[in-house]
Request: fold
Amino acid sequence: MRILLLIAAIVGVFLIVRTLLQSTNRKKPGQPEQLKEQGAMVRCAHCGVHVPQFEAYRSGKRMYCSRDHALADDSANSQD
Ligand SMILES: [Zn+2]
Reply:
């Protein structure tokens, strides 16, 4: 009976380790979904770089990657 218990314990440990390895592998395909949850990407109206909406600077209806580009585009528009 002791041998059966030992085999059962080994099989149990093997199954636990395999489950842990599978759960760590499953996290990798989940990363792109986390990017979606961060919000939409917006395009800088000045240089065209795409930045997350929560990091973007808004000036009127336009979105910018940085405060400098928002100010630069504002000054360019006012000159027209
Ligand atoms: Zn920009």
Summary: The pocket of zinc ion is lined by residues 44, 46-47, 49, 64-66, 69 (CB under 6 Å). Strands lie at 41-43, 50-52, 57-59, 62-64.
